[in-house]
Write a structure and sequence with these properties.
binds protoporphyrin IX containing FE; 6 helices; about 160 residues; about 75% helix; mainly alpha
C-alpha cells in the first residue's frame, strides 16, 4: 500500500459496516442453506442448486470486498497509532489480510459446493466460517481494547468520528 491518509474515506466506513451487517446475516440465517445442503447430500432432494438468500448475500459480500480492496489501494488506510507495539500491529495487519482472504475465498468455496456439488468445498466453507468467527472475535476485542484501555482513536475513526 502506498498512501496513509489521516482517516478512512466515507465509502470505506460505510462499506465496513454494511459488510459487518451482511456477514452477521450469513451467520444468523445459515440454517436454511445448511439443511438444504444436507438434504442434497443425503439424496432427499435433487442434488442441484436452487435460489437461496445466503447465495445472493454471499455474492454481494464478494463484490463489496473487491470494492473495499480497490479503495484500500486507491485511497490507502490510516496508519496504526505510533504507540502500538510491533507484535500488535503485525497481528492487526495479518487479521485484516486474512479478512480479505476469507471475504473473497468464502463465496468461492460456497459457490463450488452449491453450484458444482463438491462436498470437500462445503467442508472447507464450514471450516473457514469457524476461522472467520474466531477472527471477528479477536478483531472486536482489539477494537474495544484500543478504545477503552489504550484510549486511541482507532474505533472512533472506523465509525467516522475523529
Ligand atoms: C462471505 C460470504 C459467506 C459467509 C460468511 C458464509 C457463511 C456460512 C456459514 C456460517 C455457514 C454455516 C456453516 C456450518 O453449518 O458450519 C454456511 C454454509 C453454507 N454456505 Fe455460506 N457463506 C458465505 C457465502 C456463500 C456463498 C456465496 C455460497 C454459495 C454460492 C455459500 C454456500 C453455502 C453452503 C452450500 C453452505 C452449506 C454447506 C456447509 O455447511 O458448509 N456461502 N455459510
Ligand atoms: C464481519 C465483521 C468484520 C469484518 C470482516 C471487519 C473487517 C475489517 C477490516 C478488513 C478492516 C481494515 C480496514 C479496511 O480494510 O477497511 C477493519 C477495520 C476496523 N474494524 Fe472491523 N470488521 C468487522 C467487524 C468489526 C466490528 C464489530 C468492530 C467494532 C467493534 C470493528 C472495528 C474495526 C476498527 C476499530 C477498525 C479500524 C482499524 C484501524 O484503524 O486500523 N470491526 N475491519
Amino acid at each position: 500500500m502506498t498512501k496513509t491518509p489521516e482517516k478512512f474515506s466515507k465509502a470505506q466506513i460505510y462499506l465496513h459496516w454494511i459488510v459487518v451487517a451482511l456477514v452477521a446475516f450469513q451467520y444468523l440465517l445459515s440454517d436454511g442453506i445448511s439443511s438444504l445442503w444436507e438434504k442434497r447430500m443425503d439424496n432427499l432432494i435433487p442434488n442441484e442448486p436452487s435460489f437461496n438468500p445466503h447465495v445472493l448475500v454471499g455474492v454481494i459480500i464478494l463484490l463489496l470486498a473487491l470494492w473495499r480492496l480497490f479503495l484500500r489501494f486507491k485511497h490507502g488506510v490510516p496508519a496504526l497509532p505510533a504507540s502500538e507495539n510491533k507484535i500488535a500491529s503485525l497481528v492487526a495487519k495479518a487479521t485484516h489480510i486474512l479478512f480479505y482472504v476469507l471475504l473473497i475465498g468464502m463465496p468461492f468455496s460456497g459457490a463450488g459446493a452449491w453450484f458444482l456439488g463438491i462436498e470437500q468445498l462445503a467442508d472447507l466453507h464450514a471450516l473457514a466460517s469457524n476461522i472467520f468467527l474466531a477472527l471477528i472475535i479477536i478483531h472486536i476485542l482489539a477494537a474495544l481494547l484500543h478504545h477503552f484501555v489504550l484510549k486511541t482513536n482507532v474505533l472512533r475513526r472506523i465509525v467516522g468520528m475523529k
